[in-house]
Write a structure and sequence with these properties.
mainly alpha; Cytochrome Bc1 Complex, Chain D, domain 2; 42% helix; globular
Length: 141
Amino acid sequence: MRIDVAACAVSAFIVFGASASMAVVDDGEPRAAAASEGGGADAASLIERGAKLYVRKCGACHSPDANRIGPRHEGVYGRKSGSVPDFRYTKALGALDIVWDEETLDEWLTNPSAMAPGTAMGFRVTDAEERKAIIAYLKTL
């Protein structure tokens, strides 16, 4: 039986209450930790929604902890594009010289082909609120 890391992380976040936020600890797993940004229940529900959307919209090609058709997303927020060492990127994405933050992730999810013509990722998240939730979740990985 495979344990869904995202579901476990969101559950832990909710159990520890509004004064907790997701963080990455030494073993690389999302855990509840003291809040550094605040946000409380609203942040928790946004992350929970993002986790569900991630599974539904991103999960066919991506995983938090393993490369699949697309690269793993653990640590994606703040990482340089095209930098997962054991993943073979398209030339288009390999040449993209950005760091994944809220702005670049939002632009990417809106239209990957416009950002990196020739990328293999053709899927778009057209709803701005869905992108916001997915990005909130990606920040916890």
